[in-house]
From TrEMBL:
<dbReference type="InterPro" id="IPR007419">
    <property type="entry name" value="BFD-like_2Fe2S-bd_dom"/>
</dbReference>
<dbReference type="Pfam" id="PF04324">
    <property type="entry name" value="Fer2_BFD"/>
</dbReference>
<protein>
    <recommendedName>
        <fullName>Bacterioferritin-associated ferredoxin</fullName>
    </recommendedName>
</protein>
<keyword id="KW-0813">Transport</keyword>
<feature type="domain" description="BFD-like [2Fe-2S]-binding">
    <location>
        <begin position="2"/>
        <end position="50"/>
    </location>
</feature>
<comment type="similarity">
    <text>Belongs to the Bfd family.</text>
</comment>
<dbReference type="GO" id="GO:0051537">
    <property type="term" value="F:2 iron, 2 sulfur cluster binding"/>
</dbReference>
<keyword id="KW-0001">2Fe-2S</keyword>
<keyword id="KW-0249">Electron transport</keyword>
<dbReference type="GO" id="GO:0046872">
    <property type="term" value="F:metal ion binding"/>
</dbReference>
<dbReference type="InterPro" id="IPR041854">
    <property type="entry name" value="BFD-like_2Fe2S-bd_dom_sf"/>
</dbReference>
<keyword id="KW-0479">Metal-binding</keyword>
<dbReference type="InterPro" id="IPR052371">
    <property type="entry name" value="BFD-associated_ferredoxin"/>
</dbReference>
<keyword id="KW-0411">Iron-sulfur</keyword>
<keyword id="KW-0408">Iron</keyword>
Amino acid sequence: MVVCHCNRLTDAQIAAAIAAGASRPAEVYEGCGCGAQCGCCCKTIVELLRSAPATAARS
């Protein structure tokens, strides 16, 4: 599912960035090689961050 239309980021790409240690939207964008554009996806990214299982990389 496309979460960020500006950067064409999918939920799978965002999940991969989170699994790699991203803990804030800015870190998700950085991990995906882009930056925030309009910001409409930030709420969804935060929800994905909150629902992700805690990992050693994020603690």
